[in-house]
Amino acid sequence: MTETRVDLNSRKRQERAKRMQDPEAYDWFRNTHAYRTAHESPEARESRLERCRTRSRDTIKRDRETVFAHYGNTCDCCGESELAFLTVDHVNGGGNTHRKTLEAPNMYTWLVRNDYPNGYRILCFNCNCVATRVEVCPHNG
C-alpha cells in the first residue's frame, strides 16, 4: 500500500514531535541554520545578509582582478587600461550561450575555477560591443 502525501506528512510530524521530546535532539535542532534564521530579529537578519553581500562582492572583485591580471590588464584592441572599462571576451564568439551554461556565479569565478582556459581575451566595453556587432573593430581596421 502506498502512502498518500497527507499520511506521509502526518507520520513525519509525529516522528518529529517524538524526536523533539529528547533534549539532546532539540538542542541539535535549535543549532541548525534553518532554526536560527527563522527565529532571528530583523536587525540580526539584515546584519547577516549584509555580511553575505559584502563577502560576495569582495569575492567577485578579487576574481575579476585575478582574471584581468592573468589575461593582461589592457584591452587587446585599443590598449585601454582602466579596469572599470574592461571586460572578458570570447575570442571565437558564443559568449551568450556559454554564459547561460556556467556552473559558477559569474564568468570571472568560472575562469578562475577552470584555470584560465585559452579562447578568452580582455577588451574594453566599446571594442567588445563593436566586435560583437561588426566583427571588426575600427582600431584594427
**What is the distance, rounded to the nearest whole angstrom, between the alpha carbons of the first and last residues?**
74 Å
The largest β sheet comes out as: 2 strands, antiparallel
Shape: elongated
Q: What Rg do the Cα atoms give?
A: 25 Å
Helix content: 55-70%
Structural class: mainly alpha
Number of strands: 2
Pattern of helices and strands: HHHHEHHEH
Quickly count the helices. Answer: 7
Uncertain spans, ≥5 residues at pLDDT below 50? none
Indicate the proportion of strand residues. 5-15%
Overall pLDDT: 83
* Strand line-up in the sheet with most strands: 1-2
What do these coordinates show?
The protein is elongated, with a radius of gyration of 25 Å. The protein is mainly alpha-helical and 141 residues long. It has a domain at 60-141. It contains 7 helices and 2 strands. Helix 4 (42-71) crosses helix 6 (107-113). The mean pLDDT is 83. It has helices spanning 5-20, 23-30, 33-38, 42-71, 95-100, 107-113, 125-133, and strands at residues 86-90, 120-124.
What descriptors fit this protein?
single chain; 141 residues; mainly alpha; two-stranded antiparallel ribbon; 7 helices; elongated
Could you give a quick summary of the protein structure above?
The chain is mostly helical. Helices cover 58% and strands 7% of the residues.
SSE map:
Blueprint: H1 5-20, H2 23-30, H3 33-38, H4 42-71, E1 86-90, H5 95-100, H6 107-113, E2 120-124, H7 125-133
Antiparallel strand pairs: 1-2
Helix pairs in contact: 4-6
